[in-house]
Amino acid sequence: MKVIASVVLAIALSRAAAAAEMGEHRVTAESGVHVKMRDGVTLMADVYRPQEPGQYPVLVQRTPYNRADPGTGVLLASHGYVVVLQDTRGRYESEGDFYPFRNEARDGYDTIEWAAALAYANGRVGMFGGSYVGATQMLAATLRPPHLEAIFPYVTGSEYYEGWTYQSGALMQWFTSSWASILAEDGVRRAAAARSRWPEWADALPVESFRLLDLPSPADVASYYRDWVQHERSDDYWGAVKVSEHFGEMSVKALHAGGWHDLFLKGSIENYRGLHDKAATPEARAGQRLLLGPWCHGGMSAEGQIGDVVFGKDAVVDFDALALEWFDYTLKDEANLYASAAPVRLFVMGENRWRDEAEFPLARTQYTKYFLHSQKAPNSAAGDGALSLETPRKEPPALFEYDPANPVRTIGGRLCCGEATKPGPYDQRPSESRSDVLVFTTPALAKDLEVTGYVRVELYAATSAVDTDFTALLADVDASGYARFLTDGIVRGRYRASTEQGELLDPGRTYKLDIDLWATSNVFKAGHRARLYVSSSNFPRFNRNLNTGEAMLGSERMIKASQRLYHDAERPSALILPVIPR
Q1: What DSSP assignment string belongs to 31-80?
Q2: Distance of alpha carbon 423 from alpha carbon 307, whole angstroms
C-alpha cells in the first residue's frame, strides 16, 4: 500500500476553473488498497480521505476505465468524504476475469460493505459515476447492501438488452462494437502480459526472431461481443442482469441524470420511474430525482455546444458539483436544494432553458396524432409527404426499396463511441435526397409547439421479405431548411410483438408496427416545421437487417426488400407527439 502526497498545488489549480471548488479539508490518499471479494479475488482501489481525525461518509466509484483519477478523489475528499476509486474485476490492476455486468452486483455489495467498515468511515455509503459506472451502481443496489444509502448514476441503462445492446430487436452496432474495442485494449494488455515467455523465447535464432510479445485473438479478450450477437433475443442471458426487474427490492435514494441525445436516455428515465414507483421503502420512493439535459454520451464545449448546436452555457453541468450537493443531502442530511426542489428538472430545447416539473412524463401531456399524408410519392424531400392533424382518407401507399448493401447512413444522434461517428444534433438534410427515405413535414407552425415526453410512430406497413426493419427519425426544421435531429427509433419486424420470442413476417401482409422514439423535450418555434423520416435502415447506429430472416450470428447473405407504407382511412399511419399546452 503506497501513500500518495497530500493535496498538491497542481491539483488545486486544475480544479480552480470548475464549478465545484476545493473544500476545507486537507487530503491524504492510499493507492493500491486490496479489497477481497467473497470468492477470493482481490480488487484494487485508491482511497482518498480527509487528514483530520474523524469518521466520514464514503463515496464509491467502481470503474472498468482505470481508477487513476486523483482529481475527482481529492476534490470530493476535500469536502469531507472518504472516496474509494476501484478497478472492477479483471480490469487494470484488479484480479479476475472481466465480463460486462456479470460480477458487478456481488462485487459492488462486497466493496460497499468493506468501505462502510473502514476505521475512518461512518457507515453511510454512496456511489457515483456514469455510463458503465452507473451500471455498477444499479447492479449493486439490486442486492440491497445494508450500508448503501444513495447513488448518482448518470447516462446509464435500466437493463442491458433493451436500450444498451439492442433497441426493439435491432443491434446497436456502432456502440457495441466500438465499446467492445475500447474494453479490449486493456484486455489485450493483460492477456499479452500473461502470455509473455521471454526466457523461453531468448534461445531463438537469429536474434531478431525474438517474439517480443504473444498477442491473443479478439475472442480471447472480448468473448462477450460474440455472446451479445448470439443472444439477439431478450432471453435468460440478459435476464440475469436485468436491473428493471429488481426495482421493488432496492432501497436507495438516487439522482438519475440523462441526456436527450444520449444512447442510454430510456434507461435513465426508466430507472427514475421504476424506483419512484416501486422501490422497497417509502423513503427510497420519495428520494428519487431526475435531471434531463441536452447532453450526448460525451463532452460538450464550455459554450454548451453539442453536435453543431450551441445550447448555451446554462446547459453545461459540473457533475462533481452535482455529486457534492446530492450526497450532502442524502449522506450528511443537509437541507439543500434537493430537500425542497421539484423532483424532475428538464432542459427544454428550442428555448434552451431549464424547467422544474413534478413528474415525468408530464401529467398535462396531450398525446396528439400527426397523420402521414401523400397523394403522389413522399420519397425524398422533393416528394409531397405531409404531416397534419387531419385524418387521412383515400391515399395511395408509399413505396420504396430497401437494399442492405446501400443503407441510410447515420448522421449524429444517440451514438458512442469514437470520432468516426459523432453524437448529438446534426443536420439531417444529407439523407433527404434518397428515394428510400420517406419524408413527411408539417406546414410552417403559426405558433410555438412544445413537445416534451415520449414520442411514438404508428406505422401500417408491408414488405416482400420475411424480416425487415422500419426506422423513424424526428427533426426540427428551421426557416433556412436546417433539419435538427431530435430523436429516433427502429423496429425489427420479427420482434414486432416481443423481443423474447421472434416471429417472421408474412410477405405482403400489412402489419401495424409501433416504433418507439424514446423521448425528447423541444419547442418547435413559430415558423419552424416538424419533420418525420421513415426508412428501413440507420447504419451503423443499428445493424443492417439483411431481410433473410436468418439468425444474425454468422449471416452474410442479403436480399432487397420492397416496402409498402400505408396512410389511408383504414390504415392511418401517424406520428404521436406529447404536446404540452402553452
Answers
A1: EEEEEE-TTS-EEEEEEEEESSSS-EEEEEEEESS-S--HHHHHHHHTTT
A2: 6
Beta strand 121-130 pairing with 148-154: parallel
Provide the β-strand partners of residue 471: 490, 535
* Domains 2-164+238-357 and 366-580 equal at CATH topology level: no
Which contacts (CB < 8 Å, 24+ apart) does range 331-340 have?
A: 331/57, 331/81, 331/124, 331/125, 331/126, 331/149, 331/150, 332/57, 332/80, 338/255, 338/289
Per-residue pLDDT at 485 exceeds 60: yes
- Whole-Å CA distances, 276 to 247, 299, 374: 9, 28, 43
pLDDT tens digits along 513-557:
999 999 999 999 999 999 999 999 999 999 999 999 999 999 999
- Intra-chain end-to-end CA distance of the chain, in Å: 60
Rg, Å, the chain Cα set: 25
Which residues are known to be catalytic? 131, 262, 297
Between CA 23 and CA 76 the distance in angstroms is 8
* Cross-strand pairs, 349: 522
CA 60 to each of CA 104, 129, 325, 552: distance values in angstroms, whole numbers, following the listed order: 13, 9, 16, 39
Residues sharing a CB contact under 8 Å with residue 8, sequence separation 6 or more, in sequence order: none
Q: How far apart are CA 243 and CA 494, in angstroms?
A: 25
Question: What's the confidence (pLDDT) of residue 19?
Answer: 61
**Predicted confidence (pLDDT) at residue 7 exceeds the cutoff of 50:** no
Task: Determine the CATH number of domain 366-580.
Answer: 2.60.120.260
**What one-letter code names the amino acid at 281?**
T
Are the C-beta atoms of residues 72 and 130 closer than 8 Å to each other? no
The residue type found at 515 is I
CA atoms within a 13 Å half-sphere pointing along the CA-CB vector of 126? 26
* Chain centroid, CA 531 distance in Å: 24
Map out the domains of the chain as residue ranges: 2-164+238-357, 170-231, 366-580
What kind and span of H or E run contains 288? strand 288-296
CA separation for the pair 150, 288 (Å, rounded):
10
Overall fold of domain 2-164+238-357: Rossmann fold (3.40.50)
Gap between the Cα atoms of 348 and 344, Å rounded: 12
